[in-house]
Every structure is written in structure tokens, then in C-alpha cells.
Amino acid sequence: MGIGTVDIIETNKLRKKLERQKAEIEREERFRQWQEGDCSQSAKIMDDSIDDGNEGQFINIVAVPELKKSSNDTFSATEPSTSEVGQMRFTLPTLSRVCDQYGISDRCAEAIASATLQDIGIVTMDDCTKVVDRSKVRRERQKTRALLKNLQNGSGGGLKIIFFDGRKDKMLSQEIVGDRYHKRTISEEHISMIEEPNSLYLGHVTPSSGTGKHIATAIYDFCIKNGLNFNEVLAVNCDGTATNTGRKNGVIANLQNKLGRPLQWLICLLHANELPLRHLFAFLDGATSGPREYSGPIGKLLENCEALPPVQFEAITCIVPELEYSDLSTDQKYMYEICLAISAGQCSLNLSTRNPGKLSHARWLTAANRMLRLYIATESPSANLKILAEYIVKVYAPVWFQIKKEPSCANGARHIFKIISSSRYLSDDLKNIIDPVIQRNAYYCHPENVLLAMLTDERRYIRELALRRILKAREMVSVPTEVREFHIPQLNFHVLDYIDVINWQTCEVTPPPILAGVLNQTLQQCINNTEADLDFVQFPCHTQAVERCVKMVTEASMSVIGESARDGFIRAKIKSRSIVPSFETKKDYKVM
Predict the structure, then answer these.
(1) Which domains does the chain have, with CATH numbers?
(2) DSSP state of 378
(3) Which end of the chain is more exposed for a tag (fewer CB within 10 A), N or C?
């Protein structure tokens, strides 16, 4: 007969079980002693308080569980049952999502949830089994994030277009020192991706470096790993930085090389609209001197311009399109209202007391707001301040709101033409500053994008001309899937129609890749049938949706540790927002 070794794990379990039983016996004994010594006195205090008419005053909460209302509406002391302590078996997916949506910590969530359960009578002194502790909150959040992450990426159909943007984030990480984990804050590049339409979040990746080649590889590998058919992608949307748009080694060029065919280049028009203003400001007021500082006299006054009282100012005519006011952000609403105020020649008290937005070199919308706020608060504005205010009111703001009203990529060429035509009032020396900037960023004046605009033109003969040019371009291309090098043609700044902004005789005309699935027979039928129009998916011409995802990735980076946790955190926040976008009144709340 052999004797085995001691089972340490099982022994520890038995030891802890005995300790819990001993602690429970001691707790029950303390409760019995408290009941015998203090319960009657607490009941007397409560009866005296009621007799004195002080029903609304605070009563010792320890005595409340021992007092119950009998059938004859008199209070009597009762024997309390032994408090039950056990595991909380309910799942809390909604609480988990809402905590991630509003950035609530596990400790705050446990306190709020348990206090609410106590107030509505679910948690009592007799029954504490429904108390929510932070370990429960943490486990539920982890399960919810994992569940949402495992759901299928994208819309479930073919991936037609991918939007991406990125930034270098500060993020939490763990470092093992000895046998302990220590939190550290490091910087890491994150590229966020969404799918249109409907701005569906795909995920985010960390490229090995910030080069176009490595970013393209990270995006491509992510799609393959997650079962997204990247071979069906027709277009890419991003901002116009050289890393993305380099003709030979940019992100889009590398993605085209991986696919072996061209993609439609849809570069953010809101960025293209702000670049002429940035260069004009730098020319008139000088370069920046810090992350939020300027070196010139106008820039130095922008920081505290909202504190200056409005004065009588010269009105500047402004024509902004009518649009859905509720769709605008707070900063955009300010821009819209102050443009109308300057056009009318007077500023309301309410507008003058509002914040024009945070000053930042990365947010030129708020910088433009502050320039206009400074203009209406300056009795004798300088010539340079007048030039900037006039450009914002006549060019920058109208084009911004036109893009918001007509966000389709099919309107891209028309938006570029509006920037050109609206800015012709400037003097030649100022046009020499902004025209090269417009030229460099006129991606929507590439023949492929101008043809999309022509296909949606109100004039029938323009639509027919576009169809014929697409058919001719397809005949001229020897290999339909051959990767072409993307060149912006030379612009003509002195034309009266967007279709003439490029010289069709000298530039190479290639068919739009976004129409690759449309047969030549379909194009010919649209030419022959005067009532038929070519229908195609019109994706956004700006990157605001993916920029919102970039912000969420930044928030997640400082909230949780690890790529998987970040992704789950973001998906939980998106899911919670989709169910209850806003919660102002009870009718806004939705149960799912």
C-alpha cells in the first residue's frame, strides 16, 4: 500500500473554505450581539422621530432592516434573516458597453451599479448576492469586448472602399520587472480603418514603421487575416499627406501594386480646402512658433479673442448653402453663425459669448472661427486681418459647408472648381500663394474623378459626353488591370466650368476604377436611352468618419492595454452609441 504526496492545491481549497466558514460564524455572532443590544434603542429613536413630525429627516440606516411595516400600518421590530453572500450570476452586457462609452472605471461602475440596486430594493441587508463588485465589472467588460470583437468585420458583403487615417498615440503597456507587471506609457503609430457606406469600423493596425510601404502592408495583411476580401476594393480614401499619396511609394500606390490594378483616389476635400488658408495665413502673419502658438501679431491675439467685446465692423458678403443644422458639430455651428453675422454686419450677444473652439494647428476650422471672432472685435482691423476674414467668409466657409451638404465623391471636381472660382477676387500676389497649393491638392481634378462628376451633372449632354469618354478610355487602355501612375494634370484657373479645368487633349484619360464592374454594354445603353442614368455608389469625399475612429483609438490607447482590448473597447463604445445615440430624456433610451 503506497501513500501519495500531499495535494497542495486541494489542501489550499479546503483551508480557505474552513476560513470562510469561520468568518461567517463570527459575523453571525456579531450580528446577534448587535441585535440584542442596539436594535430596540434604534427602533425607539425612529418612533420618537416620527412622533415629532420629522419624517423627512435622516434615520440611522443600520436600524432600517429591523423595522417593517405591518398590516395595521404600525412599525414593529422583526427578526432579520441571515444575509446571503454568494456569486452574482447575472450578465451585464449593457452596463459593460455604457462604461466603455463614457470611460467609466471599474471602481466607479461597481459603486454606481451597487448603489442603484440598493436604492431600488434589489440589494438589501438580508440579501447582498446582487452586489456588483469591480471584479464582476471587469470580467463582464472583457466578455463583452471579446464577443463584439469576434463578430464579423465590415458589412458582410464585398469590401468596396476602405478609408484609413492614423496618428501616433500615447498608449498604456505592461513591462515585467522581476515577477511583477508595471504600467508604462509609450508612443505607437495606429492606423484606423472604416468601410463605407455607413462608416463601419473595421479595426486598427500598428505598422512596423510610418512609411507608405509598411502602412500598406499592415492594412493589406489585416484585411486578409480578418477574412475581408481586399481584392474587391475599388477605391481608397485618406488625407493628402505625401506618405499616403506618393506616386511611387505612397500607401495607395503600394496597395495598387499588391492588387495589380488601379484604385480610385479619393483624397479628403476638407483638408484640401484648408491648405490654401494655412498658406495664406503663413504668408500674411508668419510661421508658427509652437504647438498652439503663432509668431505674427494676428496669431498672438487669437488665443484670447473670445474675451474681447464686439464692435462695429464692416460687413462682408457671405453666401453659405442651407443645410441640416443639427448635423453640424459645435465648431461648425459657430462658423455658420458667425459667417451670417458678418454678412449681416452685426453680432448677437449670445454668439459673442460662445467659445469659438480650441486653438490648434491641426484644427483650422477653429482657427478660422477665431480669426472671424477677432475681426468683429477689432475697431480698426489691419489690412492682413481683413484679407483673412474676407477669404474665410467668401471661400473657406462656403466651400466647407458645400462639401458637408454634398459629400459625394462625384461632387469632388465641382468643389475644387468652387475653390478656384471663389478665390479669383484676390490680388495676383496672393493668388500666387494659394494657386500652387490648390494645384498640388486637386486630386479630384484627375480625369477619373472629373468623369464621375460629369456622370452626375444636371445637363444631359455632359453626362453623355462622360459616357463616351469612358468608353474611349477603355479602348485606349491595352491592359485594363495595369497599374497607372497617378498624376494631377495641370489646372486652368481661368475657366467658367469645371469640365474645362483640365485640358482633355493633353492629359492621359483613364477610365474610373470605381466603374470597373460596369459593362461597356451598360454604358452604351445609357447613351442610347436619354432617360437612363448610370447609377454607382457615391462614397464620401472627406475623412471625417475615420477621424472619429482615430479619436476613439487614441482614447482606447490610454484606457486599456493590448490591441485586442483596444479593439473591443472601441467596438463596445460604437455599439452603445448605435443603440442610444443621445440620452436627454426617457424617450431617448432604447432597450435591446
Answers:
(1) 1-82 (no CATH), 151-268+543-561 (3.30.420), 270-405 (no CATH)
(2) -
(3) N
Inter-helix orientation angle 460-476/447-455, to 10°: 140
Q: Are 217 and 207 in contact (CB under 8 A)?
A: yes
Which regions of 206-337 does DSSP assign to beta strands (E)?
Answer: 235-238, 264-267, 288-290, 293-294
What local confidence, expressed as pLDDT, does residue 69 receive? Answer: 43
**DSSP-derived secondary structure for 405-448:** HS-BGGGHHHHHHHHHHHTTTS-HHHHHHHHHHHHHT-GGGSHH
- pTM for the whole thing? 0.80
Give the C-alpha distances (Å, rounded to integers) separating 269 from 249, 365, 412, 541. Answer: 22, 14, 7, 6
- Torsions phi, psi of 406, nearest 5? -125, 75
10 Å CB burial of residue 268 (0-12, 13-18, 19+) is buried
Question: The dihedral of CA 413, 419, 422, 424: what is its sign?
Answer: negative
Q: What are phi and psi of 359, to 5 degrees?
A: -80, 125
> Which helix H or strand E contains 186, and what residues bound it?
strand 180-195
| Contact between residue 546 and residue 164 where contact means Cβ atoms under 8 Å apart | yes
Q: Please report, in tens digits, the pLDDT of each residue of the chain (592 residues total).
A: 455 566 788 888 888 889 988 888 888 888 777 666 654 444 444 444 444 444 444 434 344 444 344 444 444 444 444 455 567 788 999 999 999 999 999 999 999 999 999 999 998 888 888 999 999 999 999 999 988 888 765 555 578 899 999 999 999 998 888 888 888 999 999 999 999 888 899 999 999 999 999 999 999 999 999 888 888 899 999 999 999 999 999 999 999 999 999 999 999 999 999 999 999 999 999 877 766 678 889 999 998 999 999 999 999 999 999 888 888 899 999 999 999 999 999 999 999 999 999 887 777 899 999 999 999 999 999 999 999 999 999 999 999 999 999 999 999 999 999 999 999 999 999 999 999 999 999 999 999 999 999 999 999 999 999 999 999 999 987 665 678 889 999 999 999 999 999 999 999 999 999 998 889 999 998 888 877 778 787 899 999 999 999 999 999 999 999 999 999 999 999 999 989 888 888 988 888 7
Q: Are 566 and 555 in contact (CB under 8 A)?
A: no
Rounded Cα distance, 509 and 499, in Å: 13
CA distance 370 to 308: 11
> Which of 297-312 are b and which e, b meaning 16 or more Cβ less than 10 Å from the residue's Cβ?
ebbebbeebbeeebee
Give bridge partners of residue 182 from the DSSP assignment.
175
User: Residue 255 in contact with residue 218, Cβ under 8 Å?
Assistant: no
Q: Is the Cβ–Cβ distance between 365 and 542 less than 8 Å?
A: no
Matching residue, cell 451598360: 522
Closest by CA to 394, choosing from 285, 277, 298, is 277
